[in-house]
Amino acid sequence: MKRKIIESLKRWKTSPSRKPLLLYGARQVGKTYSALSFGRDYFTNVVYFNFEGNSQLQQIFDGNLSPSEILPALQAQAGETILPQETLIIFDEIQACERALTSLKYFCEEASEYAIIGAGSLLGVALNRKAFSFPVGKVDMMTLYPMDFEEFLWALGKEDMASLIRESLINRKPFSLHDTALSLYRLYLVVGGMPQAVGEYVRSKEFPFVESTLKNLDNAYIADMAKYTTSRETARIMDAWRSIPAQLAKENKKFQYKYIKSGARAGQYAAALAWLQTGGLILSCLNVTEGRLPLSVYVDAGTFKTYLMDTGLLCAKFSVPPQTVLYPSEILDGFRGALTENYCMQALVAQGILPYYWTSQGTAEVDFVFQTEKGNIVPLESKAASHVRAKSLHLFMKRYDIPLGIRVSTRNVGLENNIFSIPLYGLFALKDTLNFCSL
Fold it and tell me: What is the dihedral of CA 96, 99, 101, 107, to 10 degrees?
């Protein structure tokens, strides 16, 4: 499947200051597939090493970590020649071998002509353990998220539609295939962006198979939780993980520890949430009390919302009947807003946008607020339907003298009263649209 991260990897390959790359992301988001595809298309050859359960491979790193010592052993292990600039070396599940991670420092300093990508399903979690010596300043880093809606369209063979949606937003003109695009957006909510689930939908078009795939992934995440934690820590992580859908279903989506279990406190479960976030399973959105630059100065760290990394997983965890999402009805009204907000959070983070949310003494709230690379503050409201009152958005814009607000809903593209209306299916192009508008 075509992934946007390939463009970032191409820039990494040709960068004059290239370092070994660590590729982060949750299990099954496509890290290994993307690295292998990139190597196949842009290098002469690829040598792949998986450290999980491979003691013979790990022994190569027990001695001298100099590349001059390690490379011949790796060549022998792979049965292939490793050439500078021409061979991509992939260290998969690198967190299973601490010294392999440490060796990246020496590759950076002594053999930067060799291209190396290190990846692992629990890489971020493993690196938080004290035993690991992280090669600070000696590696580049990227994060891969689930497929966004545009990548989903590509997987469905609808690249032309994705391009037309982007053009419509940049030109601020209504999209002619609006209803069709909305139907595909709702399909994406159900299937989500996990490559395995998308592949299953493309293959079978059967939602029970898609749901089974997603629930199997959920079970795999739960199994992972015991790998680097004590049994007590594992239980807390699992409790926190299972509470996320309930947190989102509340009218007030602020994270509350009491929804994990009765009597739960921040001191008990903050580490569990940090584990889930580091593992890439949840996304956190911090509260800001002011809409001024820089937003990070006005963060209330104790007030935040949490979202699942993928709407498909969210629907599967809730056992949401696909038809209730594909064909909106009043049955799902209480959950639709949460699902929409989760989708928006995913879309923003996938574009490299760091979103916060704004509240004003409990009287007003803007779903998402972020600052652009050019230093502009942009507020964004997400709406599940076309009824789009924007009282809080207008209040925020007036209070902080904001020239343009964003409203994401089922309405078509439009601009009215300094609020740019973006249809939900077009949110993947938000960053490019703002750049085009010089924001």
Answer: -150
Q: In what order do the strands lie in the sheet with 45-50?
A: 45-50, 87-92, 115-119, 21-24, 140-143
Residue 335 in tokens: 């959950």
pLDDT of residue 12: 98
* Residue 290, token pair as written in the block: 């002011």
Query: How far apart (Å, rounded) are the C-alpha atoms in residues 206 and 406?
Result: 35
Burial 325-350 (b: 16+ CB within 10 A, else e): beebeeebeebbbbbbbbbbbbbbbb
* CB-based contacts of 430, cutoff 8 Å, min separation 6: 169, 347, 348, 351, 353, 406, 422
Cα–Cα distance, 366 to 383 (Å, whole number): 11
* Gap between the Cα atoms of 115 and 87, Å rounded: 7
Which burial class, exposed, middle or buried, applies to 40 when counting CB atoms under 10 A from its CB (0-12, 13-18, 19+)? exposed
| Per-residue confidence (pLDDT) for residue 134, from 0 to 100 | 78
According to the model, what pLDDT value does residue 100 have? 94
* Whole-structure pTM value: 0.94
CA distance 97 to 107: 16
How far is the CA of 327 from the CAs of 50, 332, 408, in angstroms?
Answer: 44, 10, 19
H and E: helices and strands count for the chain:
18, 13
Helices (H), 54-97: 55-59, 67-78
Write the single-letter amino acid at 85: Q
The pLDDT tens digits of the residues spanning 50-103 come to: 999 899 999 999 999 999 999 999 999 999 999 999 999 999 999 899 899 999
